[in-house]
Every structure is written in structure tokens, then in C-alpha cells.
Amino acid sequence: MSSITPVELRHKLHMNPEIAYQEFRTTETIINSISALGGSEALKIHTPFQTGALFEYKVNDDPWILFRADIDALPIREANDIDFKSTNDYMHACGHDIHTSILYALIGDVLKDKPSQNILFLFQPAEESGGGAMKFYDTGIFKGYNIKNAFALHVTDEYPLGTIASTPGVLFASALEMDIEFIGESSHVAFPYEGRNAFNALRTFLDSVDKLPRNVTEPFIFGVGKIESGFVRNIAPGRARLEGSIRGLKKELVQDFADSLRKILEGIKTVTGVNYIITKGAHYPEVIVNNNLYSEMEKVLGDKFKFINCGYKMTGEDFGFFSGKYPSFMFWLGTSEGERYGLHNPKFLPPDKTIDLGRSVFKEILNKVKSS
Asked: pLDDT tens digits, residue range 241-266?
């Protein structure tokens, strides 16, 4: 089987996106594509989880470095009119097809150049939801490796094409997925006293949350992206549900806020009789950029690329799990050529040339690390 180019891989993945924990065809495509590269016999493939893969390049008994790309897509219908448009109802609206293709390109370079550095290449599932980083780690696959540093990037059209943006300390916020179901009793709108209106309880909850005291100097967000309630116009709903996310710069503060929400819900239950169920999803730790690595990379990458200190972002990213385990460096890679749609937008579409840029940045990082 002949190898494909990084751009061809990107197009193939973009046309066939798969969401969290369903990336079976994606994983197969990645493994087959890398196995077709010249010199791939130098790699050892590990598949300890149902999706995703870890590729091992070992040359000695020294410590390892880890490069990570995420592989899952989003349940978004694509709005771009392109030759490689998604063929299903999902979309790589967060650029993971680009991330994967960049790492694939880097592996090709490593197999050609044969650097004297032990490297792990992780194609991680379920970054968008479900905490794939932690679950892949919990397989125990990393126990046999002395990993000294971990690296990752994320594309964005917030910055011009080729811009590198990072910051020392917290780059991305801690994020906790939270769903709350309100359980009351339906009644005809003409007889509201015969029921317990779950939607009214939900509204009261949101109003109460807005009145919670906040530290104005501490960035914090409780965002609700989805609300469901009711079936017909003349029945007061007995059930209501919201899906939201809590975000802050420290995991502990996020958890404390989640605990305070339960107290509000208990109060509403006492007054209205509407019960509740809280379902917590993945809790992503904050992404921490190691101060020393940031200083080193600012010098190395600043000579060849536009490098800016962007400060923290309230974006959630489960690379935070790895940055809590190993000294790490993560960065934004700008993709904009004038357009600005933002991540998770049905028209978000980084240009193919982003792949070579990301590959070049990763190679500079690799060259710096192996010479240290």
C-alpha cells in the first residue's frame, strides 16, 4: 500500500468525521496511513483503548517526549461548499483533522531523519466530550515510559495564519460538563396548581445563579448551551433539562461552584416541590504551560514564526490532563487568511497549508528538545 500525503489524509478524515468514542474508521485510517510510510517498521503501535492509537519511536534508554493530536469530530452539519466536505451529519469543526494530519506529517519526517530522541505520538480519542485523555491514560499504557515533556497545538482562526500564541501558566481553563434535569409534574395550563412546573423551576435556578456573588478579578463562566422542556402548548411541563459548562482557571474553583449549584437546587426543591438530577460529565483540568518550556520555545520559535503571549483563554481542552502529569507546552496555531468564524462553527475551515506550518513548528520543538 502506497503512502498518502498529509493533505490527502486531512481530506479523507474531513470527509468521514466521527464523534467521541466512535472514531473506529478514523483510527483504522490513521494506523493504515502510518503503516504505509517508509521506515514505519521503526514504530511500535499500541491500541490499548477502543479508539485512538499510540505510536512508539525508540532509539535508546533516555526519557521520552510526547506529541499529541486529537481525532474526534463534532455533531455539527458542515456548511462549507468544498470538494472534501463531510459526507455525514458530523464535522471536524474544531480542526482535529488538521491536528491529526500535522502529527502524521511529523511522523513521516521522524522516520526519514531518524532523530536520536525517544518519541511517543498519541492520536487521542474523545477530546470534545467524555474526557478521552484521562481514559486513554487510565489504560496504563504510559506506565512504562519516563516522559519528560508533552506537546500539543490547537488551530484557531482568531489569529493570522502561522501565528503561534501561548502563555506561561494557565493557557486554557478547567471545564466541567454538567447536565441538570428538573422533575416535577405536568398539568394543564388552565390548572397550574395541579402540577409542579419544571420549566419554572429551571428559570428560577438560572435567575438564582445569576445572583451568586462573584470575584470580579477571577475569570469564571457558567454557560448553558441547551435547554429542553415541554411537548405541547397547553401543558405545563413536568420535566425540563439544561446542558451547561462551568469554566474557571482552577479545577478546585470549578468544583466548589458546582457544589454551590446543588445548594440552590435544594432550595428550589423545598419551595416548589420540583426535584432534580445532576449529571456531571468530564471535568477537564486547566491546561498549564510550563514556565521554563515557554521561555525556551519563545526563543526558538520566535526566530522563525510570529510568536505572541495571548494570555489565558476560557476554552476547555483535555490536554490539561497531560499537562498535569508532565511539564508541557501547548499553543494556538493561527489559521486565518482574513476569515473569522471561530471554533465549533459549521464554516470553520483552516486551509491545507496549515498542516505544513504545524509540522514545521513541531520539528523546531523536536530539534530543540533532542539537543537539550
From this structure: 999 999 999 999 999 999 999 999 99
Residue 370 near residue 121 (C-beta atoms within 8 A): no
Amino acid residing at 76: I
d(CA 351, CA 12): 15
Residue 321 grid coordinates:
490532563
- pLDDT tens for each residue of 83-97: 999 999 999 999 999
CA nearest 240: which of 192, 281, 205? 205
Grid cell at residue 80: 462549507
154, exposed or middle or buried, with CB in 10 Å at 0-12, 13-18, 19+? buried
Domains of the chain, first to last: 6-168+290-371 (3.40.630.10), 174-283 (3.30.70.360)
Instruction: Retrieve residue 129's grid coordinates.
Output: 466530550
Name the E strands within 19-146: 43-46, 53-57, 64-70, 118-124
3-state secondary structure of 228: strand
Secondary structure (H, E, C), 116-139 = CCEEEEEEECCCCCCCHHHHHHCC
67 within 8 A of 110, measured Cβ to Cβ: no
| 100-105 average pLDDT score | 98
pLDDT digits (tens, 9 = 90+) for 39-72: 999 999 999 999 999 999 999 999 999 999 999 9
Active-site residue numbers? Answer: 70, 128
294's torsion region: left (phi>0), alpha (psi -120 to 50) or beta? alpha
User: Are 243 and 223 contacting, i.e. CB atoms less than 8 angstroms apart?
Assistant: no
